[in-house]
Each structure stands twice: as C-alpha cells, then as structure tokens.
Write a structure and sequence with these properties.
Chain lengths: ~160, ~750, ~375
C-alpha cells in the first residue's frame, strides 16, 4: 500500500492505495464517487473522463499512485449546492442526455476543454468529444450543448 | 380539430435529467451493499464440448471464496416470449445440461469477497472437457455433418408463408431481379456494458434482484421458475440503465440465474459485472442473415411478386429467434402492396455467441435486402426511386395481410415528400457525381415497423397513478426507461389528462413489488402501450377527482375542467377549487371522507400500428480507396404524434448514427468461433468527430388507437439507414453492395470488377 | 543479431501468450495469429522478433518447424503474474538503477495510455510487474539547439501540436501526424516516447520522425548514446532497447535545404481517428527546383514502420513528375509486406500503400511548384 495526497473536488485527502489500483477504482470504490463510469477499461469509451490538474484524462488509464499531489475534479465537484454548472444546464436544455451513462464523461471532457478554448467552434467541440462514445444521441445534441455552455460561460464570466 | 395541449407535444426536459448530469443517477454498476460478495464466470474456451468434470477443490481452499454455481445445477434460460403462455413449453425454456456451445459459454460462477481472490480462484478451477466438432458456418448447420448442437437438431425454426401465387406472380412481371444479401453480427454496444446485476437472496426466502433489464416482470417470472419460488417472493428492481437497444431484453446468459444461485447459497448480496470483453464476446447480438430475394415488377413500375428465402443464424441458443424472423416477414409484407409474396425462413444453431434482439429486431436485415431490390428495380425500369415507392407502398385503408388488420395511419407519403424537399433529392439525383476521385450520390429507402407486439405476444401494459394531498402526483409504471425517455413521455400523458403540471408528476422507479405487470421495453412500444395504460389510469383518477370536486363545488362533475392544477366549472369560471385544496380537503381535513385518489389501468394494446419512415442518405465515395463518407442523412418518420418532439428527434438522430455504423463500420468478426474484435478499438462505433449532420423530420399521422395519436419510433430510426446508404453508393459510383458492413475494401473490390 | 531474448521455447511447449488465449489484439497490434502466419510465409517477417506486449514474451518464428502448433495448449504457468510494484524515481540515475535491478520485470510508464489497457485482464485488474513512472524526470520538453530539435521522451502528444516548433516546414509533419494519432483526451496523456517504444508497426509518430531522419538518445548503465531511429525498430513491438535501457529524447536534425513533407493516414472509412490501415509520411528536399533527397516512410504494411528506399532512390534522382511518382508508388508497394488482420487484408493494404504514396508525393509536387 502507498499513501497519496490528492485534492478531490476541492478537498485535500490522504488515501492508502494499492500500486495497481487505477484512479477509477479509487474514485468509485474508496471515495464512493460513482458518477465517473467505467464502460470499457481501456480508454476507448471515455465514460470515466475526469479532470486532472485541469486536463481531461481517462481515469481508467491512470494509476492512483500516479496522481499523488494532484488536483482531481469529477462530475460530483461541478455543482455548487443545488446550483448546476452551465454545462450541466446546457446538457439539460439541449436534450443532450438519453441513458446518461456517458454524460458525466462528456461534461468533464468539455469542462477542461472550454477552459483552454473559451470560444470553440463546432469542429473543435466534435474533436473535444471524440473520446466520448455515446450510443444514444448520435452526438448532435451534446455538441450543441457544449457550444451553448461555452457561450453562456463567456457571457457570465463563469470559470 | 386541433386541440391545444398543455403537456402533450411539448419538449419538456426529461425528468431524470438532473440525476444524470450531476452523476447522482445510480446505475446497476454503481450499486454496492453491506456484506456484498463479488462473482465472476468461468467461460468455455471451446466452441463445442461436453463438460465431464469440474474440480473446484483447490479454489475452495482459498480464503475468501464463498460459493460455486455450476452448469450442472443452474438452468440456462434459452427461450423467450412465446413460451410463457404454455406450461409445457415453459419447461423447455429452462435448459440444464453439461454441454458448452460457444466460446464464452459459462461453466461456473464463483462468489468471493473481492475481485483479486476471484481471479485467483478462477485460475485454480480445473475443468475436464471432451471437445466436440463445432459448426461455425450456418450453411453447415443445414447439412448432415454428424454435429448436433441441440437435441432437437440444428434447425431451430422454419417458417413458410405464401400470399397469392408466387409463380403466377412472376409470370406477370416484366422485370425480375434476384440477389443474395448478407448482414453482419452487429452488437448493441451500449456504453454501460451488458451484464450487471446484484442478487440478494435473504434469509426470509425472498430474492431481490437489481438488474438493468428491459423486462423487469418477465425477469421476475423466469427467476421464480428457476428457483421454484412464488412470484411474490421474487422482486426485480431496475436501476438506471446505460442503454439497452434490445441487449437487455430477457435474462442475460449466465448472469442473473447464476448470480442468484450464488446468493441463495450464501444468503449474502452478490454482484456480478461483465467486462466489455464479456459483453462483446458472450452476450447476444443481431442475427446475421443470408437473404435471397427475387423481386418482380411490371414495366409500368407495379410490384407483382417477391420471393424471400432467409437463413438466420441464432448462434448457440435461441432466445428471440422466432420473433426476429417473424419480424422480417411482417415488415417485408406490410410495407408494399405486393400481391404475390412468398416467404421462407430457416433459423439455425451454430457454435457462436447467441443472437437476440437488437434495435429493429429482424427489420434492418430484411430492409437492407428489400430496399436494395426496390432500388435496383426502379433503376431497371427507369423510374425515380421515390415515385416507385409512392406507387407501391401500402397506404392507410389497406389491409395488412400478416397482422390481419386495417392500416389506420400511414404518413409515408409525407415523409418522402418532406425528406425529398429537405435533402434536395430532385436536384442531387440528377447532379453529375463529380470529376476527381470523389464521387457524390444520394439514395433513399423507406421502412415500416410495428409498434409493440400485441399480435404476437402477451404484451400487457399497466399503470397506477396516485394523487398526493398537495395536488402533486406519483405515477407507478414498470415501463422500463433505458434512456429513451419513456418515463418523461408517460408523465406528460398523465399531466395532460389530469391537468396537473408536468413538474408535479413524479414517476416511480421500476420495481415489481410496486409497479403492476408490464411487458417491459421492446418493440418501440412504451409511448404507445405504456401511454395507453397511463392515459386510462389518469382518466380513472380524473373521474374520481371530479366526483369529489363536483360535490364540493356543487355542480355536475361532467361540466368540470382541470387546467394547471385548478378545477373549475366550464359554465361558471368563478366556481373553482385548486387541486391542492381539493386533495387536502378530501384526504386529510374532512375526516368523513379520507379518500385516496388512485387510478389504475391495464390491458393489451388494441393494435400493433405500423410506424413509417424515409431516409435520404448523401454520400461521397473515393474511387481510389473505396472510402465512403456519409455527408448527410435526412430522416423523416411518421410517429403518429410526437408527445415530446425533442425526445423523438433524439431517437431519430441516435438511430441514424447507429444505422450508419451498421452500414459501414460495425460487426463482430469471428475466427473459428472466437470473436476477434471484442472491444471498442476494433469494433468501431462512430465518434463525435465522425458523424455527419442527421436532419430529423417528424411527421404526425395521428394513429386513432394511440394515446393522443402516438405510435412508436425507437427502433425505426436505424432500420432503413443501411439500405439508403447502399442505394446512395450505387447512385454515386454504380456498384451494388450486398454484404454488410460495407467496408472500403469491399467497395474498392466492387469498383475494380467494373 | 538482435540482443532480444527469444522465448520461442516457451511457445513451443504449448503456452500461448495471453493475447492469443483471449483472442484479442493489443491496440495497433496485428494479432499473433496473423503475425505468426506471416513470419512463416513472408521474407520480411522471417528474421524479425515479435513481441507480445501483453506478456512481454518475444518470439522468433524463423527456425520453428511449420507443423509446430504454436497456438493451442493448456497451461499458462510460465506466464504467471509477477509481483507488483510502483516506483517514481526523481532522477535518471535512480531510474537506471531500478531498470538494472528489475530487468525484464520492469516496465516504464509515462502516459500509461498503452500500458494500462494492455494489462487489463478480463476482470479489469492491472497485472504488471514493476512499474517505473518517468513523469518526474523532467523529460517533458521541446527545445531548439544548434544540433536540432530536442523532444523529451515524456513529452505529451498534445504539446507537439501546440508547439510553434512544429508549425513550419518540414517539421510540421510531426504535428500533422500527432493530430490524427488519437483523440484529444488520449493525447493529453500519451507521450511521444511511449509511441516509439511501443514499436507498433502502425505507430503514427514514427513515420514523420523517420522522414525527418530523427535520432534517439538512449540511456543505460553504460551511459548515453545516440542511435538513428531506423535501427531502433527491430520487429513488431520490438525495439533495440535492452531491459536496462531507456529513451531520453528524440533529436531531429535541421535540414539545410528547402524541404516539404506530408503525412497521410487511411483508417476505416467514416472515421477521423482510427488505428491506421496504412499510413505514409514523405519528405522531399529541393535545391532550386530539383529534388535532391527523398524519404518515403510506410506504416502498417510490414513488421515495422520502414523507409521504402528503392522508391526514395527513384524520386531523388529524377525530375518529379507524374511518371516518376507513379513509378515510385508502384515500387513502394513492392517494398511493402503487409499482412491480413481484422482491419484490412494484405492485398488491400498493398494497393493502398501505392495510393497513399502517390497522393502524398503529388501534394508535395503541387506545393513545390507554387
């Protein structure tokens, strides 16, 4: 067992992890943050996308021990009380959610992306979501939702 | 008459949206219970073998290993639907033997305290096999090879139907076209892998199962049978489900049955979760088919005869094999007025992972063949493919010879006309394909799909509505929502009838202890069958409300109306009471009444109405590499009435993209029974950066038997995409692809033959 | 001869590597069955070691009798899971010490986007030996010196795209390949060194680097040395690296002449990002209007990414016109020895080699004229 210290959704925590534990195991198991989903375990589906030090990464392709002293943001950390994040609101408004299994991953991919690219166009958003497989929506509405969220975040100076 | 609806026809936000965007929605894979064990399956490495002996003695010694369940003791549930009605046949659904029939067929399940122990335990189990010769090619299943997959033989089912006189029909034909088509073993590929459940067999002798199933009540029936329990001792709860598309239409092979036996042995909750590899290699898929079709028409463009011969490969076990081939028949015959139609279908067993239900059932296969044929004929007699379809499709007012009912609504003509206008069909059809290596083309195809399965199966729907004392309501329904949004749509139906705001209607979780018998989600049925049940339950609750309101307002209840939670006298608008005040009064304040308002309804859908659609696909083909790019899909569907238009559009666009996958990139590949692409890196789904614009067009033909005129949509949106793409490729470069999926290599091969 | 330890013996007694046992392919791998078949029938494959990334086993087919059944077999004891450990050294010296200590049991990890999926058993548990994380060694840089462009082995692929260094000819070809290497999310973690050390015959980044005559700086217990990228690749998934060696950086020398380059990749249709069916990188150097040097690099069509040298020779000694291009494309096709796998057949791949080389050269020709 190794001890790591991570900032998870704004709170620093010390955790004991096995060297072979993937970040997704620690998040879903030890921390009970089941909003991050596992759809394939090999980085193809993107349901486990989270933000690591501000970048969108796949929690199934990172070992927990590799995240020592890192800042991690998961879907559970986006909402402030009952107030939804603009991305979450946009996914609702644009009907971008169907079964919802890929939704947290899509939102987290978009979250990191919009911070780096506050004014994305449709092609950029399609590339941002390229690692998030969705079998229900055909992607059209999620892409629109990310564009709408970026727009509303610019207007309200939301970070 | 146009009615101004307050809830129906409105694109409300889905009721489970907040749960899903915040990550708080709990899927089966997210469930965890105190004292819970984990289970995994040991699967067969042989395509066909007798299991002589299973030695678990070394595995038993491992600390943390708690129980074993083997195929010697746990029956496989191998047939669905048709067999539930009949006691004798019902017994045949539960096969218990020591034969493994495909690579990945479960042999035993182990329950242990954690995953690592499980893995070590699985490695220690010794299984003695006697390998048998296997059948990999469905054609071999028809021959005398000495290999028998099931006792009754390798032919699972045969059907032959003839309408009119096929030979006489062909004699009147001026043009006859005959081709053979092949379709692939498509996978559901829902993003939550198929195959997660938690079984909790408690010391009181009751079993609770948490499972992402499409058919909670039928799962309850199957499990009761397996365990010899009464139905009230088996409770099935369906948490949120990460997509289904038919993949959860019944018990999952090896999952719930084995998991619940482990739980019974340990009296602890046991969770089993398939990996993506297991999902791809050992759960059901689309039936691959070989379809020979001979079609005849007159030179004026009137279809006269169609002869169909299908060989369908159901794999190692047959779950949906009868329904799937029957669907080929009903959708093929129902779509066109063809006086002479001969249909022959043979379903065979092979030593492959089993086939089952997948969005569209047998229709995408049948449609690919039949709509390709129609295109070829139209071209031979030099008729615009759209005109040809308009001449021959079976409009409202005609009898459907298979379903034996009159078609009451059919918006196909409007679908074709609106789709043609939006896609630029006329101009693009005559546009030259282009000079360079990139050639453009446009193709279309049409489809029919039945809503529900009332003509074939026990297909009940039911609902209960309970009004709370503050005027809000709870709708209890087992209409399993897999993500399509049926709970939202059903709440809209209830809201419309009760006059209660949509936001004030809560829809219960699906739990067989509280929600009445429902046939579950399949066959695009929930807006229609579920909608009818909810409509009737709401009408009943409304009548009860109005009786009380009439007493209080001292007026006849039949002149009362409800809008936005206010009950008022239509002839005296000031004579009113809010739903909240009324409910408060009759439920709590007035001790003399203390009435509960509960509306409940159930029943079989009165019909199995067809819904129709037209897809226009525009493609670009690179003649040097064979690459195809779908540039745009225009998909127009007649859904009767869109209760929630945005949700309908979501189905159309999502189905369109799944259809492009079926056409171009998807299909499990097998090598002697091994699935060689059991993951997303080599089973290629389209990604956000790959998809073209899909333009959804909603046509409303107002189905008289449907709730507010609604019928289905879910499956249809993918049914005729592959045929439209194939027809577009032909238009672009003049080659006809008859083999799915249409890879660039196959297209280049065809181009080089020319 | 290669210093790879060959494990043919293990296979011969009937122990299939995991990837064969579970019948799946590692990302970018052609699959063992296909490679073994090729090694028995195609000259280009015969003397090449083949490595299974899943198990670390390396196998040379040359010399194993044809009738030996390499595939079936029951017990897998020889491939028992190793002990598990994770190390995050702070210096290169510490890293080399760990490599020396653990040898074959050691596995370097940076982005992890190839290693982690590879070590997924069916139960999704990580089953690696000693993982040594090199992300704390400061190997994440892109620098220009007189010698050329230095890229640290642990540089993320997205950083190649955003770096101004790769925005101009002929070096932009690396960013071009990087853009289609994988998705944005994967590229946030995946590193250039990982892509090369994986030594997949499809490795997208290897192609432009070969076209740019890149060198590698290799570190080991005996110090540092420079090797050219071409001799780094030994066979499918095999490199020249000893178990106690590691890659420190990639060095791209500056070119003295006007040079133009390009990268083309064919995936499954309708897909923007996919493992290549065939990929091609080209670079032509010009003096005035004459083409004086050519690189034609082909991926996914042989045991490793390779330069089609006969085709290169045809281009650099003549005038660049349609005839020369067609001849070179046909020659490149002859130099390719692809095999059948689940993405495409060998025959199709061969045709596509010619097609992509032709297309790539034509694009450069057009640009050279303008």
């Amino acid at each position: 067992m190794k001890t790591i210290r991570i900032n998870i959704n704004g709170e620093w925590k010390k955790l004991k992890v096995n060297p072979q534990d993937r970040l997704i195991d620690t998040l879903r198991g030890q921390l009970g943050l089941t909003g991050t989903k596992e759809g394939c375990g090999e980085g193809e589906c993107g349901a486990c996308t989270i933000n690591l030090n501000g970048k969108a990464v796949l929690a199934c392709l990172i070992l927990s021990v590799q995240t020592d002293e890192s800042r991690i943001l998961t879907i559970e950390g986006l909402q402030k009380g009952l107030e939804l994040h603009p991305l979450q609101t946009a996914f609702l408004n644009e009907s971008a959610v169907q079964c919802g299994f890929c939704t947290p991953g899509m939102i987290m991919a978009a979250h990191a992306f919009i911070r780096e690219n506050p004014e994305p166009d449709m092609q950029m958003v399609k590339e941002c979501l390229a690692n998030n497989l969705c079998r229900c929506t055909g992607y059209e509405k999620p892409v629109k939702a990310v564009l709408a969220a970026a727009c509303s975040m610019r207007e309200t100076n939301h970070d | 008459m146009t009615e101004a609806y307050t809830s129906v026809g409105k694109s409300f936000q889905r009721i489970d949206g907040v749960d899903k965007v915040t990550g708080s929605a709990k899927f089966a894979t997210d469930l965890s219970f105190a004292n819970m064990l984990h289970a995994r399956l040991l699967r067969s490495p042989h395509a066909h073998a007798v299991v002589r002996h299973i030695d678990t003695s070394d595995a038993e010694k491992l600390n943390g290993v708690k129980a074993f369940a083997t195929i010697f003791e746990v029956p496989k549930v191998i047939q669905y639907w048709f067999f539930l009605r009949n006691e004798k046949k019902k017994q045949q659904m539960f096969l218990c033997d020591n034969i493994v029939r495909f690579i990945g067929d479960p042999i035993l399940a182990i329950a242990a305290t954690d995953q690592e122990i499980l893995e070590n335990a699985l490695a220690l189990v010794k299984v003695e096999y006697e390998p048998l010769k296997a059948i990999h090619d469905p054609l071999d299943a028809l021959k005398e090879t000495g290999v028998t997959i099931h006792k009754q033989g390798n032919i699972a089912f045969k059907v032959k139907k003839e309408f009119g006189n096929i030979n006489a029909g062909f004699e009147t034909a001026d043009v006859i076209v005959e081709n053979t088509y092949h379709t692939s073993k498509q996978k559901h590929a829902s993003i939550e892998p198929i195959g997660t459940c938690v079984a909790d067999f408690q010391s009181n002798g009751r079993l609770t199962l948490y499972s992402s199933t499409q058919l909670p009540h039928w799962s309850q029936h199957y499990l009761a049978e397996i365990h010899g329990l009464s139905l009230n001792a088996v409770r099935v709860i369906k948490p949120y489900t990460g997509g289904a598309f038919g993949g959860r239409c019944g018990l999952i092979h090896g999952l719930e049955a084995m998991c619940s036996v482990l739980s019974r042995k340990t009296l602890r909750p046991v969770k089993m979760s398939f990996s993506r590899t297991e999902d791809f290699s050992a759960t059901e898929s689309r039936h691959p088919m070989t379809i020979r079709m001979k079609t005849g028409a007159t030179k004026e463009g009137i279809l006269v005869a169609n002869e169909v011969d299908i060989l369908s490969d159901t794999g190692a076990y047959g779950t949906h094999y009868i329904g799937v081939i029957a669907d080929c028949l009903s959708t093929g015959v129902g779509l066109y007025k063809i006086p002479h139609y001969s249909f022959q279908g043979t379903v065979v067993y092979t030593n492959k992972s089993m086939s089952g239900a997948l969005r569209g059932y047998g229709n995408p296969q049948m449609n690919f063949a039949q709509e390709s044929q129609m295109d070829i004929i139209a071209q031979k007699i030099n008729l615009d493919p759209m005109e040809f379809r308009l001449k021959n499709y079976r409009p409202a007012g005609e009898m459907d010879p298979v379903l034996n009912g009159m078609i009451l609504s059919n918006g196909l003509e409007e679908c074709l006309k609106k789709g043609a206008a939006s896609s630029g069909w006329k101009e693009k059809r005559v546009r030259p394909p282009g000079h360079g290596p990139l050639k453009k083309g446009i193709g279309l195809s049409i489809m029919l799909h039945g809503t529900g399965a009332a003509r074939a199966l026990p297909d009940p729907g039911s609902a209960t509505i309970m009004i709370h004392s503050d005027g809000t309501a709870c709708l209890m329904t087992a209409a399993a929502d897999e993500g399509q949004g049926s709970r939202t749509v059903l709440a809209q139906v209830a809201s419309q009838i009760l006059g209660i705001d949509f936001k004030d209607i809560r829809v219960s979780d699906t739990d067989t202890d509280i929600t009445p018998l429902d046939c579950g989600t399949h066959g695009s049925r929930q807006a229609y069958c579920g909608g009818l049940a909810v409509r009737d339950a709401a009408v009943q609750a409304r009548e009860k409300i109005l009786v009380h309101a009439g007493n209080i307002l001292k007026t006849k209840s039949n002149q009362l109306r409800i809008e936005s939670g206010i009950i008022f006298d239509a002839f005296n608008l000031d004579n009113k009471i809010s739903m909240k005040d009324l409910m408060q009064k009759i439920q709590i304040q007035d001790m003399g009444i203390c009435a509960q308002i509960i509306g409940s309804a159930s029943g079989i859908a009165p019909a199995m109405p067809g819904y129709y659609g037209a897809v226009f696909a525009e493609v670009e083909v690179n003649i040097r590499t064979g690459e195809v790019k779908v540039l745009r899909l225009t998909s127009a569907y007649d859904v009767g009435k869109a209760i929630n238009p945005e949700l309908v559009r979501g189905q159309i666009v999502g189905g369109g993209v799944m259809g492009i996958g079926f056409a171009l990139t998807e299909g499990l590949l097998l090598d002697k029974g091994h699935i060689v692409n059991p993951g997303f890196s080599d089973y290629r789904l389209l990604r956000a950066c790959d998809v073209p614009p899909v333009i959804p067009i909603i046509v409303e033909s107002n189905e008289p038997t449907g709730p507010f005129g609604a019928k289905g949509i879910g499956e249809g949106a993918m049914v005729n995409v592959a045929s439209a793409v194939a027809n577009a490729i032909y238009h672009a470069v003049g080659v006809r692809l008859t083999d799915l999926c249409m890879t660039s290599e196959k297209i280049l091969g065809e181009l080089q033959k020319h | 001869m290669s210093r790879q330890k060959i494990h043919a013996q293990v296979i011969r007694i009937g122990n299939p590597p995991f990837c064969l046992k579970s019948y799946r392919q590692c990302r970018g791998c052609f699959g063992w069955r296909n490679m073994i078949r090729a090694a028995r029938s195609k000259a280009a494959w015969q003397d090449r070691p083949i490595k299974c990334l899943l198990t670390g086993l390396t196998l040379k087919i040359g010399g194993i009798p044809e009738d030996t059944d390499l595939i079936t077999g029951g017990n897998t004891d020889a491939i028992q899971l190793k002990s598990r450990g994770f190390h995050k050294p702070g210096t290169i010296e510490e890293t080399i010490d760990l490599l020396v200590k653990y040898q074959r049991d050691a596995c370097l990890i940076a982005g992890g986007t190839d290693i982690l999926p590879r070590h997924q058993g069916d139960g999704n548990r990580l089953t690696a030996g000693h993982l040594i994380d090199i992300s704390g060694l400061g190997l994440d840089y892109i620098q220009n010196t007189d010698a050329g462009i230095h890229i640290g082995a642990a540089t993320r692929i997205n950083d190649l795209i955003s770096s101004p260094v790769f925005s101009s000819e002929p070096y932009g070809v690396l960013a071009e390949a990087a853009r289609v290497h994988s998705t944005h999310t994967i590229r946030n973690r995946a590193t250039i060194g990982g892509n090369l050390c994986n030594a997949s015959p499809c490795a997208d980044l290897a192609l432009p680097l070969l076209a740019l005559d890149a060198y590698l700086v290799i570190l080991g217990p005996n110090g540092k040395h420079l090797i050219d990228l071409e001799s780094f690749f030994q066979g499918p998934n095999c490199t020249i690296l000893e178990p106690d060696q590691m890659m420190q950086e990639i060095l791209i020398p500056f070119t003295n002449h006007l040079a133009l380059s390009g990268f083309l990749k064919l995936g499954r249709h309708q897909t923007k990002i996919d493992t290549a069916i065939v990929n091609v990188a080209t670079r032509l150097s010009f003096k005035e209007n004459d083409c004086i040097d050519a690189r034609i690099v082909i991926g996914s069509a042989g045991p490793m990414v390779f330069r089609a040298k006969k085709a290169e020779a045809l281009i650099k000694t003549g005038i660049l016109d349609d005839d020369a291009i067609n001849l070179a494309a046909g020659t490149a096709m002859q130099e390719a020895s692809p095999l059948d796998d689940i993405r495409a057949s060998a025959a199709y791949r061969k045709e596509m080699v010619a097609e992509l080389v032709k297309e790539s050269l034509k694009i450069i020709m057009k640009r050279s004229l303008s």
